[in-house]
From TrEMBL:
Localization terms from the record: Membrane; Mitochondrion
Coiled coil stretches, renumbered: 11-53
Name of the protein described by the UniProt record: (raccoon dog) hypothetical protein
UniProt main location, coarse: membrane
The organism's taxonomic lineage, starting at the top: Eukaryota, Metazoa, Chordata, Craniata, Vertebrata
Source organism per UniProt: Nyctereutes procyonoides (Raccoon dog)
Gene Ontology CC, one term: mitochondrial inner membrane
Record keywords: Coiled coil, Membrane, Mitochondrion, Transmembrane, Transmembrane helix
Taxonomic superkingdom: Eukaryota
Length: 153
């Protein structure tokens, strides 16, 4: 049996202990919340850092790709101009060879024409010589025949 006074004191002690426990719980909650907030902040900072690293890497990859693209583009332009120069040289060489071939064909045609003209001249000359010899032979035979005819008549 407890007196009313002791009971009130005990209730007051219990209430004070409950209040202390509540304060401790609030403090613990605040600490837990602070720890969670600090952890959240740390995670946000880490996330921001990782995001920045990824952006830096993306920019680096883009820059490298643009550089590679520009290098390849300039290499292709150089190859194109080199091929154009080679093509121009080949065209010039072909024109020169064609002109040389035309000169050779023209010279050959002239030589053939000269040879044909010479052969025609020689043929005419031999024809005239044959006609002379034939005429001489005919006249000689006629002279001999007339000579025999005269001798027998």
């Amino acid at each position: 049996m407890v007196t009313k006074m002791q009971q009130e004191v005990t209730v007051q002690q219990i209430m004070s202990q409950i209040a202390n426990v509540k304060k401790d719980m609030i403090i613990l909650e605040k600490r837990g919340f602070s720890a969670l907030r600090a952890e959240n902040e740390k995670t946000n900072v880490e996330l921001h850092r990782l995001k920045q690293q990824i952006m830096d890497e993306v920019i680096k990859v883009r820059t490298d790709a643009k550089l590679d693209f520009n290098l390849e583009k300039s290499r292709v332009k150089e190859l194109y101009s080199l091929n154009e120069r080679k093509l121009l040289e080949m065209r010039t060489e072909m024109v020169a060879l064609h002109a040389q071939q035309d000169r050779a064909v023209t010279q050959t045609d002239r030589k053939i024409d000269t040879e044909v003209a010479g052969l025609k001249t020689m043929l005419e000359s031999h024809k005239l010589d044959n006609i002379k010899y034939l005429a001489g032979t005919v006249f000689t035979c006629l002279t001999v025949a007339l000579g025999f005819y005269r001798l027998w008549i």
